[in-house]
């Protein structure tokens, strides 16, 4: 069998076929071809020695083995030159030419008997496995030997004196370049040292996991091809058209509770999709929707948007809803939602008011990611509507406006029924909640009346449509709750008086506004503003 040469030696030798060992450094997007696929990647065996390789194959499942940092042993690559640069090229399982790729000691495809009869196979010995582990721990290869087997021999022999050139892989000093989070590197070494353990041992590793867990919101800032650990709930599970991939939509408790006027729902989830190819279907058999799990070492991938990919080193540990980690995530999510929908009142003294008259000097505090502010209408700097429309989202503003229009026109339609179980509005709105259950989830004890208005406000610079709903509407109308659970509340009559007064008198009044992005547009919403001094 031919030597496994360094990349520099291959370039100099000008051999048409060669064998090479290297570390996978970069992956291009998978390219569908006529009846097959092409995967291009970059390997290196030293800081200066790199080579682009293109492999053609028909079974898309082999993509699971191509992961940044894996050691590739390529036996039988063909030489290809493009722009004076030497590349490797192969068609796996071609009838005339065979290329065998080993990833971390395992063949990319199962080797069948017919293949053994027709080709010389390169096999990984324990010494090579030891070198792989050494690479993981120290960042370079020590010397290692390879043995070969042919179709005419059932035993493998080595002759260090006569076949040293054929059986010795050269010493490679490779700077380790795996794109892994520093906090996960020790866990990764453990996975490589236990690469051949059975599933029970893998489960033990998962159950004793103590690595860093990231949130879905944080993944947008994590580099592609990095490994991450997340705790999340499966909110949706579906299969690809060819049934070779299962897509899991995951939610980890992050996100804001916002009203989406298009879908008529209150959205509170930030989700991400994780792709699981059929080689790993057995890993997710017990992973149904609404199940919480710890996902260990899943890869950050990019296809149209950030997503996750379940790979060779990935593991899953199903968690109970009572698991402290799950409870913590849900508690943090609830606190964040409360910050956005039920902002606490803070009363302070003002040089303009005495101690007995603090009601008009309330501070309104809201937290949106990376934005935190305290607003006092007495001293606030007001933002013009024109500037609000030009600002980035999400954001919060204080502005002085007039009320131009209100919708719906019928005030009794300002009150709608929200199911707190699935966070959807009932359409059409029932006139009573007696003997009524949610159309979506069939719940009858989580229904409540809620304000939902669309207001058009304006100033000298322009107009702005805003939403007023929920507890913020109650605060705006100086109400603590809606006075009836079953029948249409009469509280809306007090709200009607305030809206009519603002429309008739056309006087300016201050409001706090927050902006956020829904599925189809930017939405502006009035929050924590009390309408006062209405005649």
Structure report:
- The protein is of the alpha+beta class.
- The protein folds into three domains: 4-137, Nucleic acid-binding proteins (OB fold (Dihydrolipoamide Acetyltransferase, E2P)), CATH 2.40.50.140; 216-333, Nucleic acid-binding proteins (OB fold (Dihydrolipoamide Acetyltransferase, E2P)), CATH 2.40.50; 371-533, Beta Barrel (OB fold (Dihydrolipoamide Acetyltransferase, E2P)), CATH 2.40.50.
- 18% of the residues lie in helices and 35% in strands.
- The protein contains eleven helices and 30 strands.
- The strands form seven sheets. Strands 24, 25, 26, 27, 28, 29 and 30 form a seven-stranded antiparallel sheet that branches.
- The chain starts with 6 loop residues before the first helix and ends in a 9-residue tail after the last strand.
- Residues 94-210 and 339-374 have low confidence and may be disordered.
